Amino acid sequence: MEEQKERPAFRNLRIDTARYQYLGLWEELRIPPPLPPRRCHHSAVMIQNKMYIYGGQDVHIGVLGDLWVLNIDPSSSSNELWTELHPSGDLPGPLCRHSAISRGNLIYLFGGTNNSVENSSIYVLNTENLVWTKINPSSEQPPAIDSHSACFNEADNTMIIFGGYINGVHSNELYIYNIQANEWSRPNSQRKPDPRSDHSAVIYQNYMWVYGGSSESERLSDFWRLNLRNLQWELVQSEGISPGTVSGHSVCVCGDVMLVFGGIREIIKETNSMYTYDFSSNKWLMIQHETQIKDPLSPSEIENYRKLAKQRHTVQYSSKEESAKADLTKQRSAVVGAQTQGRVKGIVPHSRDGHSSIVFEGGMYVFAGDRHQMSFNDVYCYSIQEQVLKTPVAI
To answer: Based on the structure, what is the number of domains in the chain?
Structure first.
C-alpha cells in the first residue's frame, strides 16, 4: 500500500470575514469533459488527493450507480481531471441518500435507496484494485436506512450511523459498526435528539456533533453532541448567529472550526450562505450572506438538458448498454458547453442542497447538489484562511 503523505495541520483556524473579503476566497474549478452527470444526494470521500463520488440522483434522469474520481491539485489546475471508474465485484448498484466514509484506501458505503428498494448493507471498495465487497456482519445489521449521517470514529475504528428514514419514518436511532470486529451495536440513551433526516454530523475530539435536518413536519435548527465515551447525548447551548432551520446542508471540520454551507430552508428556498462554529469558544459566526448569482445555465440549456434526460428513460439497453450510457454521458457533458480549464477566482457557488463538501489542504471543496429540481455537477473551492479574527465586521 502506498504510504500517505502527512498533510499540514490546521492551527487555531479562524475564518477571515473582515472587509468583505469572503467573495475572493471562492474559486470555481473549470474542468474539461468528461464530467460526471449532474446529481444530488450522492456520497463523497477524500483519499490522499482524490475525491471519490458515488451514486446520487437527478430528478430528470433517475438514480445513478456510477463511480467517479477527481484528482485535486491546487498547484497545477491542468492536473485536475475527472475519471469514471469501472470497478468489479459486488456492485452496490444505483443508490442515492446513502453515506460513505473512508479508512485508509478503503471506502465504506452504507444504506441509501434506489427510490424503489432501500439498502441495509455495507459495501467496501478497495480503491487500489477497484473491487467492491459486500460485508456480511457477524451480528444483526440495522434495517435499511436512507438520508442518515455517517461518521468515522478513528479512535475506536467504528462507523457511527444516526437518524434518517427507516421504513419511511424519521428515526433518531444510533447504530455503530465496529470495523475490526465486523459487528453492529445499537446503544441507547435516556435523552435523544428528535427524529430527523438530511441533517449533518461530524466528529471533533471526543464528540459527534449533529446540526439541523428535517422532521415529519418542519426543518430543524437544534444542535446536539454525542459523547463518544459514554454514548450519551447533550443539547448544545451555543452563542452567536447560527444557520437556523436548514436541511440538506454540508459540514466540514477544519482545525477548531466547523463550516456549514448551503442547504434548504423551505420548499424551493435553497441557500448558499455559510457559517462557522468555533468549538473552543462555543460561538457561531455568519461568514457569507445568501448571495444571488446568475444561473449557471441559460433557460435554453436547461430545456436541452431536460430533453436529453427524457431520452435516458426511453433508451432500451441491450448488448449495447455500455455504449448507450457512454453516449448519454457525453451528451450531458456537452450541455454545459466548452469549458476553459483552470481555477476562476471570486465565483460563489449557486444556492443548493444535497451537495457534498470535503476538506483538502486548506480548502473546502463543494461538489454538485440541487436547486429547484435542477442538479449540478460543478466544483468549487473555498480557501480557508488561518487568521485570528479579533474584531468581526458584519457582512
So the answer is: 1
| Residue 143 DSSP code | P
Q: What is the pLDDT of residues 296-328, one digit of tens each?
A: 655 666 666 666 655 554 333 333 334 444 444
Looking from the CA of 168 toward its CB, the CA atoms found within 13 Å total 3
Q: 1 lies in a domain?
A: no
Three cell numbers at 269?
A: 428556498
Count Cβ neighbours within 10 Å for each residue of 196-218 and write b for 16 or more, e otherwise: bbbbbbbbeeebbbbbbbbbeee
Residue 242, domain CATH: 2.120.10.80
Q: Please write the tens of the pLDDT for every residue from 81-102.
A: 999 999 999 999 999 999 999 9
Grid coordinates of 112: 441509501
- Going by their DSSP bridges, the two strands 342-345 and 26-30 should be labelled as antiparallel
**Residue 66, φ and ψ in degrees, nearest 5:** -100, 160
In terms of residue numbers, what domain contains 233?
Answer: 27-297+336-383
**DSSP readout, 92-139?**
--S-BS-EEEEETTEEEEE--B-SSSB---EEEEETTTTEEEEE--SS
C-alpha closest to that of 261 among 388, 392, 365: 365
